Structure formats: C-alpha cells, structure tokens
Amino acid sequence: MGNGRLWASMDYSQKAVFVEGIREALIYKDLFNFNGTGINKAQAPANLFNDWAEGFGVEEYMKETDKVYRDTENTLIPIVMVMEYCTVKFTTNQPKLKLDAVLAALREFSFRLRKIP
Fold first, then answer.
1. Where do the DSSP E strands lie in 2-112?
2. Are the C-beta atoms of residues 65 and 7 closer than 8 Å to each other?
3. What is the pLDDT tens value at each position of the chain, 117 positions in all?
C-alpha cells in the first residue's frame, strides 16, 4: 500500500489524481454496496456516501494529508487510511487529543501491517 513515502514522491498533479481516484473508488463501493441500484442519493440509505466528507474537495484532502505526513512518525500510514482520518477530522468535532489518538492507532496498525509476510 502506498504510504507517506509514495506521497512525498508525488507532485501536485499526481496527488490530485491519486486522491480523486480514492474518492471515486469510495463512491463506486458505496453505490454497489447498495445493490448497484442506489444512483439516486436522496433515496439511498443515510450512511451511503459517508466515506468522503461532504463539502470537502480533493484539495482539502491533499492539504490535510500533507499535514499528516509532515510528522515523520506518520510516514508508514497507508494513504487510504490517512484519507479515512481526514474524513473523520472533517466530519466530527473531535478534540485534537482524540484525533492524535486516532493517528497513534494508525501508526501502530501500520507498523504491524509491515510485519505481515
């Protein structure tokens, strides 16, 4: 999985395409988890489309991902998990300490993930 090392190697356009790809994959996943018929957002279940923060665009996700990876402790966290963290940050009013705890858990998970053969 691509992590902070891959993120650091990408230029602005590559990051934008990567994040847009994740966004589209999340929408695709949500649509087809709704039996492939849930095209009408108004008729879809309330939790559909919750993987991406409403009102936030690719650029906001890119900026927040840059912030996360500025802390070198977060380098091994996969980019897709950082996107999930961004969604949590953008959609909740979690205090900084709780968000820091989420990042710490992601760092621990990422470390264990690297040990899987």
1. none
2. yes
3. 899 999 999 999 999 999 999 998 887 776 666 555 545 555 555 555 578 888 899 999 999 999 999 999 999 999 999 999 999 999 988 898 999 999 999 999 988 877 765
Residue with tokens 């990567």: 18
For the chain, the straight-line distance linking the first and the last C-alpha, in angstroms and rounded, comes to 13
Cβ count near 62 (within 10 Å): 19
Residue 105, token pair as written in the block = 């858990």
* Residue keyed to tokens 């994740």: 22
Rounded Cα gap, residues 96 and 81, in angstroms? 18
Contact between residue 82 and residue 69 where contact means Cβ atoms under 8 Å apart: yes
**Residue 29 identity:** K
List the structure tokens of 22: 């994740």
Please give the model's pTM, rounded to 2 decimal places: 0.81
Q: Where are the alpha helices (DSSP H) in 34-95?
A: 58-70, 79-91
